[in-house]
Amino acid sequence: IDRYFKGEPENDKIEVVFQPMTCQHCENAPCEQVCPVGATVHDTEGINTMVYNRCIGTRYCSNNCPYKVRRFNYLDYHTQDPRQYFAKPYLNIPDLEETEYFSKEGEKVKKMVFNPDVTVRMRGVMEKCTYCVQRVHRATIAKRAEGADVVDGDIVTACQQACPTQAIVFGDLNDKTSRVSKLQHSQRAYGVLQEELDTRPRTQYLAKIRNPEDGKGEAKHEA
C-alpha cells in the first residue's frame, strides 16, 4: 500500500492518499521481455502469470518492472519460521525439508494454516500478484461443468473480498456491462505511468475526489 502526502510538515491539515500497488498486469509487460526462461507470460485470460516451477530467480523481471511490485522469495516461509534464529538454508539434496519439518509432532498443526488452493513456492523464485488465478479457474471450471457462462461477480479476488470499503473491483473487461468495464471507461480512470512508459496496464485507478473547505467555510471540489 503506497501512501502519498499533501501539505506542509508544520501544518496539521496534511492529506493522505492510499494506493494499493499490486502487479499492474501490463499488456506491454517489461518483465516478460527480459525473463530468460519464460517464467512470466500472458495466459488465455489475459493475466500476467508466473510459472513458479520454471523461474530460476534471476530477478531480471524485478529490475525491469517500473512499479517494483515483484518480490524475491529469499526464505522458505512454508517449511520453517523465518523469524527463528535457527532458520537457515536447507543444503541437503534432494530437498526433503518440508517432509522433515512437518513430520515433527509439534509442527503438524501448523501445516493446516496454509492455503490449499495456492501453489506452494519454494525459495529462490519471484513472487507477484496473479489476480488470484486459482479463483479464476475454479469459478470458470465450475461454470463450464454447469454449462453456463461466467457472469459479473462470479469471480472475487482475495484482496477484493478482504477490502472493507469495497475499493477493489475485478471482472471481465470484454463484458461492456460489467462493473469493472464501466469504471475503466470513467473519466476518473487512469493507469499508473501509462503515458510515460506505454506499458498499457490493465489495473486502472480512479482519481480521488475531495470536498475540502477553502478556509472561508466554502467547499471546493478537488480530484
Amount of helix: 10-25%
Which strand-content bin applies to the residues? 5-15%
Spans where pLDDT lies below 50 across 5 or more residues: none
Structural class: alpha+beta
Average pLDDT, all residues: 84
| SS element count, helices | 7
CA-atom Rg in angstroms: 22 Å
Shape: globular
Q: How many angstroms does the end-to-end distance come to?
A: 20 Å
Major sheet strand order: 1-2
What does the main sheet amount to? 2 strands, antiparallel
The count of strands amounts to: 8
The helix/strand order is EEHEEHEHEHHHEHE
Explained architecture:
With 223 residues, the chain is of the alpha+beta class. The chain is 20% helix and 11% strand. The chain contains 7 helices and 8 strands. It has helices at residues 30-34, 60-64, 97-102, 133-146, 158-162, 179-184, 194-197; strands at residues 2-6, 15-19, 40-42, 48-50, 71-72, 126-127, 189-190, 205-206. The strands form 4 sheets. The protein has a two-stranded antiparallel ribbon with strand order 1-2. Strands 3-4 form a two-stranded antiparallel ribbon. A hairpin with an 8-residue loop joins strand 1 (2-6) and strand 2 (15-19). The protein is globular and about 70 Å long. The two termini are 20 Å apart. The relative contact order is 0.14.
What are the key terms here?
223 residues; alpha+beta; two-stranded antiparallel ribbon; two-stranded antiparallel sheet
Can you lay out the helices and strands and say which pair or pack?
Layout lengths: L1 E5 L8 E5 L10 H5 L5 E3 L5 E3 L9 H5 L6 E2 L24 H6 L23 E2 L5 H14 L11 H5 L16 H6 L4 E2 L3 H4 L7 E2 L17
Antiparallel strand pairs: 1-2, 3-4, 5-6, 7-8
